[in-house]
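so my prof wants the structure for this chain in the tokens format not the other one, which i didnt know existed until like an hour ago. anyway here's the sequence
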Amino acid sequence: MPYIAEWSAERAPGPRVVAKGRGIGYADERPYDRDADGVLWLLGEDPADPGSWPRDLVTAHPPLCLPCAVRSVRACPHLRTRCVALRVRSFGLAGVRGALYAPGNPSPVPLGAVGVAFDDPRIHWVRAGQLIMRLREFTVVDL
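here's what i got, hopefully its the right format
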């Protein structure tokens, strides 16, 4: 299991989310709770048929070196039955995936998990958990 992946039993309550400025923030927010773009951070795709994928793919799954990818597949029962490995030649940051909130009284209301681009106005209402990468040039490889 890659160390960045969360086990199902590891879900811990996060800091209290409040309305702040144009979106949400933490009640006791510190400067390092946001990245340089002002995105608030938190401390599954279906592989189907890779041949039918668009040539411009977005994903929140982090890159791994080949030895770590092989080790992860061996260690994780979910990955043993369902994973696709890609060799990526061109990529870039596309946005974030996290919990979307809506204005509420007295506190913002969580709506669910979403992926949003950096230029999407909803980004001010997201508590980010993962970066989303845009993969432009890739090929499917066998681990």
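also thought this was worth mentioning. Confidence is low (pLDDT under 50) at residues 44-48.
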